Amino acid sequence: MKIPVNREELSRLLKRDEGPALEFKRSTAELREGMQTVCAFLNGSGGTVLFGVRPDGVAEGQHISDKTVREVAQAFERFEPPVNLPLERLPVESGCEIMILRVDGTLDSIPFTYEGRPYERVGNTTRKMSQERYEKLLLERTHSKRRWENQLAEEVTLKEIDREEVFRIVDISRSVGRLVGPIGRSLLDVLGRLGLRKNGQILRAAVVLFGKTFLPDYPQCELRMARFRGTDKAEFLDQRQIRGAAFKLLEEAELFCQRHFPLPAKIVPGQMRRVETPLIPPDAMREILVNALIHRDYTIAGGAVSLAIFDDRVEVWSAGSFPKGITPGMLTRNHPSVQRNPMIADVFYRTGLIERWGRGTNRVAEMCRAAGVASLPRFKKSALPLWSRSGYAWVQPLGRKLR
After folding, report:
1. Do 166 and 174 meet the contact criterion of CB atoms below 8 Å apart?
2. Sequence spans of domains, the chain
3. What gap in Å lies between CA 348 and CA 172, rounded to an integer?
4. What is the pLDDT of residues 47-59, one digit of tens each?
5. How far separated are the first and last CA of the chain, in Å rounded?
6. Rounded Cα distance, 287 and 179, in Å
7. DSSP for 122-134?
8. What per-residue confidence (pLDDT) applies to 387?
9. What angle do CA 239, 244, 246 make, to 5 degrees?
10. Which of 392, 394, 370 is CA-nearest to residue 285?
11. How many Å apart are CA 167 and CA 263, to the nearest integer?
């Protein structure tokens, strides 16, 4: 717990010049600039911003009203990830107050952005962070020590892990050359080899991939599928809700697509045979479904991967926002690979279902183009149904209406 700034500490701060860890602002008329510096301190080694202090270190103070406090609180809402720093106030001789914002700079959530932009501190200057450095920090955050997937699944025992499913995936991984060397038949050892246990205990990632029991502690492991009549959600033709391990959910989604996608066929001249062509290339459909499973935000307990088939399009939703630094428009061109759940993604990689180069969405567009699909896929931020806070969606127009 931080000890509030007292007069002696304030006096020491005022004797220092502005620098890598200290910024003076004359008043909250410079609140936006001050918050940009807070963002820079969050992305660095921490620091202190003092409002009510002239650039030469003279403490004039300012009148801090309820409106001022509300404005500061509203400014904090513009940080991503969310930030909640204590607002300290210290009276000065003028009868006004100094407002103090102190940043530890030890948080695991960097990089932070303010109003959608990342900032960094260089000397006594706050500047916008370069895209290259921002992407590097994003990748480091993705592999941070504390994530939902790498926490202990304390309530899960080895009996609740599907042994047959584990060794099925191991066999697939060995067949494609992405798991080499002796494996053994000990389930605990195999989970360790896959990086899914820590100090002998099972991690949450293992439950997502191979769990047998999901109620009530893992509502995230759910797939919702629907075939709607027409182009809206007014009428269901078919719907299913399944809770299970990730590879099983993938298989169920593929079966649902096979059941509801017709296979247009044509006679090949001179060959006297029909050639059936799916409306969406199966590999492209699989790529998108895998993407939704490995990149979804599993901290959103009520979220679910959702597959909706309409007469004119297919939509796949995944709970959570796009990774920081990634925009929908980037997904069909070169972009960094930012994995939200690297442990879960690694097991999918071992089976040959994904690569590690951030090209999955590019490949989807290429496969659709090669298959002659009239309209290429779209990626967008999406307001999901009521079970989730936010999400992102893949939309693939079909080019012809289903019947």
Report:
1. no
2. 7-129, 158-210, 222-397
3. 10
4. 999 999 999 999 9
5. 63
6. 21
7. ETTEEEEPPHHHH
8. 31
9. 105
10. 394
11. 34
Tell me the three state secondary structure of residue 89.
strand
Cβ neighbours around 222 below 10 Å, total: 19
CA dihedral 324→327→331→334, nearest 10 degrees, is: -80
Place of tokens 């990089």: 111
Report the 10 Å Cβ neighbour count for 397.
18
Q: Do domains 7-129 and 222-397 have the same CATH topology?
A: no
Residues 6+ apart with CB under 8 A from 317: 292, 305, 306, 308, 382, 384, 391, 392, 393
Query: Do the strands 222-228 and 305-309 form a parallel or antiparallel pair, or are they unpaired?
Result: parallel
**Maximum distance among all Cα pairs of the chain, rounded to whole angstroms:** 97
User: What residues contact residue 255 under an 8 Å CB cut-off, 6+ apart?
Assistant: none
pTM over 0.70: no
Condensed to tens digits (0 to 9), the pLDDT of residues 288-299 reads: 899 889 988 887
> Could you say which architecture CATH assigns to the domain 222-397?
2-Layer Sandwich (3.30)
Please report which residue ranges of 143-281 form alpha helices under DSSP H: 163-175, 187-193, 204-210, 246-260
The crossing angle, in degrees rounded to 10, of helices 66-76 and 31-42 is 40
Rg of the chain taking only CA atoms, in angstroms: 26
Assign domain 7-129 to a CATH class: alpha beta
In 3D space, the residue among 250, 240, 242, 155 whose CA is nearest the CA of residue 206 turns out to be 155
CA angle 324, 330, 334 (to 5 degrees): 110
Contact in structure between 5 and 11 (CB atoms under 8 Å)? no
Element (H, E) at 363: helix 360-370
